[in-house]
Amino acid sequence: MFYRPEDGHGLPHNPFNALIVPRPIGWISTRDSAGRDNLAPYSFFNGVAYTPPQVMFSTTGPKPDRDGMKDSASVIVETGVFCVNVVSQALTDAMNTSSQGFDAGVDEFEKAGLAKADCETIDCARVAAAPAAMECKLTQVVKLPGQANTVIFGEVTGIYIDETCMTDGKLDITKYHPLARLGYRDYAVIEKGFTLSRPDD
């Protein structure tokens, strides 16, 4: 089949959502100026640079009580910092709970039964049980075409890694099985990988 997105796809579900897979999940935690913590997963997330290390995530769709932005983006614009928590298979249910559209100011850590740990370089909480977390300072906010499509860029200022997830000096995904987003309501668990050398190595 071929279709132009502006004309519609004619299918029960949007196939675009399933074309870019698997997608890492950025489990974004923030703390507003009143000290209230927020936690929400975003599957439009990735690293974008090595030196200095930088990440991005994007929010889509408006939130009625946030003037057209999601809670995470609104708080990041307010405070200039955020934390990206890595989602392990063991945290699947908690991540899903935190994806609900709670009112602004509701603490998703509490709703999901998650313990908090303090970040080292920013005023923010991280998910204590996460295998890794990246503390970030906001560098850029980019508005995209469409209703309430916003990209948040951040520079990583601190990295936490659970030492039990390391093997021979490398982060070992087989120790925590990262969760990835597929299309629609589907997810995958990464349980193994393989090494592939470049032809010019």
Which helices and strands occur, and which strands form pairs?
Layout: E1 23-24, E2 26-31, E3 37-42, E4 45-49, E5 54-59, H1 71-79, E6 81-85, H2 92-98, H3 108-111, E7 116-118, E8 125-127, E9 132-143, E10 150-161, E11 166-167, E12 170-171, E13 179-181, E14 187-189
Antiparallel strand pairs: 1-13, 2-3, 2-6, 4-5, 5-10, 6-9, 7-8, 9-10, 11-12, 13-14
What is the H level of CATH, i.e. the homologous superfamily? Electron Transport, Fmn-binding Protein, Chain A
What spatial order of strands do you see in the largest sheet?
3-2-6-9-10-5-4
Note the run of SSEs as H and E.
EEEEEHEHHEEEEEEEE
What share of residues is helical?
under 10%
Give the total of domains: 1
Question: What's the architecture, going by CATH?
Answer: Roll
Question: Main β-sheet, in a few words?
Answer: 7 strands, antiparallel
CATH topology-level name: Pnp Oxidase, Chain A
How much strand?
25-35%
Mean pLDDT: 95
Specify the CATH class: Mainly Beta
Structural Rg: 18 Å
Q: First CA to last CA: what distance? A: 39 Å
Question: How many β-strand runs?
Answer: 14
Counting helices, strands and paired strands, the structural category is mainly beta
What would your notes on this structure say?
There is one protein chain. The chain is mainly beta and 201 residues long. The chain has one domain: Pnp Oxidase, Chain A, CATH 2.30.110. Helices cover 10% and strands 35% of the residues. A 7-stranded antiparallel sheet has the order 3-2-6-9-10-5-4. The chain is globular, with a radius of gyration of 18 Å.
